[in-house]
Amino acid sequence: MIDLHCHLLPGVDDGAKDLGTSLEMARIFVADGVTHLACTPHITPGVWANSGPQIRAAIADLQLALDAAGIDLTLYPGADNHMVPNFVAGLRDGKLLTLADSRYVLVEPPHHVAPPRLDEFFFGIRMAGYIPVLTHPERLTWIEGQYDTMQRLVTGGVWMQITAGSLTGRFGKRVRGLALRMLRDGLVHILATDAHDPERRPPDLSEGWRIAAEEVGQEEAERLVLHRPFAILKDELIAE
């Protein structure tokens, strides 16, 4: 399996607190069947002042530590990029990061307030040649009143990535219901862990995969954790 959203890097945001935690999480990922992993720290102005070069350096250091510890996990660069003005310019100058240096980019909207001109924002990213991947839409508190917006964004070429823990109920019944609704409506492109630590937000992709397979079938579930994520790592365009 391939996980394209996690907070594994030690000490850079609200994910792994130190190298020991990162190594513990990495072992859980491997035991769960994950072989390729995009490290995606938050880039959120005023909260997490990470940048592309810092994240790349931290990933290189962690990959060396994983290799030294004999943990067979391949890391890729990425970021949980918060919606900001001049988003495309940030991608082009390397301050923001796409997934594995591909055309696919994680975009994190505000959690509690629906941003204005959302369609226009994503349209601008698409016109610049990128494919935006909206992170954990099912966990946004405003999504129920904007579900038609999510449908419209998908029609316009925006990908949706839901969290495995949303399907297992880790974030509550409301979020689980929304995740299942999106899955059944064909609005989900990728399943990821958004793992932050070994206990509260652990790597749990296989459990999410199992639930997805029960809901939409094994073939589509494999697209969520294997085929589409692999296409992203290879920077391929695939028909939806």
Name the features:
three-stranded parallel beta sheet, globular, about 40% helix, TIM Barrel, about 240 residues, six-stranded parallel beta sheet, alpha/beta
Overview in brief:
The protein is of the alpha/beta class.
Q: Would you mind describing this structure in some detail?
A:
By secondary structure, the chain is α/β, with parallel strands linked by helices. It has a single domain, classed as Metal-dependent hydrolases (TIM Barrel, Alpha-Beta Barrel). 42% of the residues lie in helices and 15% in strands. It is built from 9 helices and 9 strands. It has helices spanning 19-32, 52-68, 87-92, 118-127, 147-155, 164-168, 173-184, 205-216, 218-233; strands at residues 2-6, 36-39, 42-43, 74-77, 80-82, 104-108, 131-135, 159-163, 190-192. A 6-stranded parallel sheet has the order 3-5-6-7-8-9. Strands 1-2-4 form a 3-stranded parallel sheet. Helix 4 (118-127) links the parallel strand 6 and strand 7 (131-135). The radius of gyration is 16 Å and the shape is globular. The two termini are 20 Å apart. The model has no long low-confidence stretch (mean pLDDT 95).
By DSSP, the count of extended strands is 9
* SS field, number of helical segments: 9
CATH class: Alpha Beta
Tell me the structural class.
alpha/beta
N-to-C CA distance = 20 Å
Order of helices and strands: EHEEHEEHEHEHEHHEHH
Question: Order of strands across the biggest sheet?
Answer: 3-5-6-7-8-9
* Full CATH superfamily name: Metal-dependent hydrolases
Unreliable segments (pLDDT under 50, ≥5 consecutive)?
none
Biggest sheet record: 6 strands, parallel
The gross shape turns out to be: globular
Q: What radius of gyration results from the CA coordinates?
A: 16 Å
CATH topology call: TIM Barrel
Mean pLDDT: 95
Q: What amount of the residues lies in strands?
A: 15-25%
- What's the number of domains? 1
